[in-house]
Amino acid sequence: MVEEQPITYDNWKTILFYDKLTDKILHRHMTPNPSQEEIEDTLNEPDLFKNRVTNDDLSNIATIIMDDDENGLESSDVCIINGQLEKQYHLVLSCTAADTDGDGLPDIDGDGQETTEFTCKVVRHDDHNQVIDWSGQAEAKTTRGKLLGTVSGLFNIANGVGTFTLRSAPETVRELVVVARLAESIGVQSHRAGYSNAVRMNFR
Predict the structure, then answer these.
(1) What is the pTM of this model?
(2) Per-residue DSSP letters for the chain?
């Protein structure tokens, strides 16, 4: 008599069905071999998503496939926080300007000529020293001054790092704000992402 072997879940995957407008996870489906047919069959299950997805519209449901191991669901792109998908990365924005007046904010001359270079790094959400190998475009905005090295605010990121330059305006400004966010997203675009990092500085 052949002894029946217990089912193991090594190398299984989990298909997460989520509301792409809110990032809320609606359903989890474990499978050894994810397929489009499985996804469509799940979407067609009666009442599974009724009154759970935005506007009861199945076109608002998206899927992502994640590895399932002893540590739980794993993905290089997203993580699960309080039942919702969140990006696995953050942006760290910094500039070369120094704090010359001791107020805790970097500053440059408000003469319309001086510049400072900004570096934007894509890092892991749980380790801001670990740069992620990501390439694409990011978007920068500033409340004062002029951005250089961007096209309509967009600049390139290669291997997780991108740069742009800010030129001052001919005025004294206290606490202007420069912000950046990814214009293209891995996996899920979080509706809460907004501008992921900001630098406050002065034109003296």
Answers:
(1) 0.61
(2) -PPPPPP--TT-EEEEEEETTT-BEEEEEEESS--HHHHHHHHTSTTSSTTTSGGG-GGGEEEEEEEEETTEEE-SSEEEETTEEEESEEEEEEES---SSSSSS-EE-SSS--EEEEEEEEEETTEEEEE----EEEEEEESSSEEES-BTTEEEEBTTEEEEEEEPPSS-EEEEEEEEEESS-SS---TT-SS-EEEEEEE-
**pLDDT exceeds cutoff 50 at 169:** yes
Instruction: Answer for the pair 16, 58: CB distance below 8 angstroms, yes or no.
Output: no
The answer to which of 24-33, 63-72, 112-121, 128-137 has the lowest mean pLDDT is: 63-72
Q: What local confidence, expressed as pLDDT, does residue 187 receive? A: 39
- What percent of the chain has a predicted confidence (pLDDT) above 90? 35
- pLDDT for 23 equals 77
- The domains located in the chain, with CATH, are 13-74 (no CATH), 89-203 (2.60.40.10)
CA-wise closest residue to 197 among 179, 182, 184, 185: 179
Distance in angstroms (rounded) separating the CA atoms of residues 55 and 60? 8
